[in-house]
Amino acid sequence: MIQALIVLALTAACVGGTPEHRQIRIATGSPTAVYHAVGTALASVIEQELPEVDATVLVTAASAENVQLVSSNAAEIGFTQADILVSGVSPAPNMAALARVYDDLLHLVVRADSPITRLQDLRGRRVSVGAPGSGTGVTVGRLLSVAGMAEPGVIRQERLSLDDSVRALSNREIDAFFFSGGLPVAGIKKLSGASATRIIDLSDWAAPLRAAYSDVYVVRDVPTSAYQLPPVATVAVPNLLVVPASMPDDLAFDLARLLMERRDVLAAAHPAAERLDIRSAIATLPVPLHPGAARYFKSVKP
Fold it and tell me: How is domain 105-238 classified at the CATH fold level?
């Protein structure tokens, strides 16, 4: 009899006790880049709106590392450029997408007094091509390949993070650096305010990149308002939020809902999030939209 009462008490405690918390680790990027700003805001929104979920932010090298973390179940959400998932780097079958978020623009930054005015002028120069594990590194590798500049020694490549690239350019330790991110990139904006800089037009290379790799590459403008610099056009690629395909449908539904309903909070953290749009959010190729996220977008279809 006593044993039966104990079992009943334990059962009641489990039924009426505190629900088990879910863990959401958000793989972002450099602390001064867009992924980290939006990811940190998203984590705050999740914790405020979903009390049964604990959200944390991971500082990473960005896209390529983020995809690996999500694929290996070391993160539940990852920001990534769409081009990381095409042309020989196929998305893992256990991966899905919450939404297309905004476009990443490829920046080629030089000092204002630099003789570099086009991509080909990088020959023989010291150039940061992005940190190992970054989406920047993948995109730049493909760009240099279609430009016939990928062979060792054509440019003197450094693999620096955004923060280290900014410091190195300021100290004249490198001649230029690449970085792919949503507008405006905080590190580049800070640099342009402190030192005379320029951004090189890369728009002519979008078509060769499409022909060689994927249609995800398009041309987008960097307006004067982004950095108070002359406007230029450059190569851009869609940015996605990827998750494990095994994520419960109800959680994916809620995360997609929060992305749209709390877009103002995300945009306050970084203007790139203003580009979140219900119509474009479902365009997540080459990764399928998670069924839970798809159910949310269908429920609010204009």
Answer: D-Maltodextrin-Binding Protein; domain 2 (3.40.190)
Quote the DSSP letter at residue 92. P
Q: What is the pLDDT of residue 90?
A: 52
Percent helix, strand, coil in the chain, to 5, is: 45, 25, 35
Q: Which CATH superfamily is domain 21-101+239-299 in?
A: Periplasmic binding protein-like II (3.40.190.10)
Cis link prior to 244 (omega < 30° from 0)?
A: no
Tens digit of each residue's pLDDT (9 = 90 or more) over 200-218: 999 999 999 999 998 899 9
Strands 176-181 and 156-158: unpaired
Distance CA 151, CA 128 (A): 15
Mean pLDDT computed over 87-114: 86
Where would I find the beta strands (DSSP E) of 83-231? Answer: 95-111, 126-128, 156-158, 176-181, 197-199, 218-222
98 phi and psi angles, rounded to 5 deg: -85, -40
Within the chain, strands assigned E span 22-27, 53-58, 77-81, 95-111, 126-128, 156-158, 176-181, 197-199, 218-222, 232-244
Which helix (H) or strand (E) covers residue 277, if one does?
none
Q: In percent, how much of the chain has pLDDT > 90?
A: 81
Structure tokens of 60?
Answer: 């990473």
CB 35 within 8 A of CB 29: yes
Strand partners of residue 270: none
Tokens 């994520």 belong to residue = 247
Q: How far apart are CA 170 and CA 111, in angstroms?
A: 8
Q: Crossing angle of helices 162-170/186-194, nearest 10°?
A: 10
Q: What is residue 230's predicted lDDT score, i.e. its pLDDT?
A: 94
* Contact (CB, 8 A) for 105 and 233: no
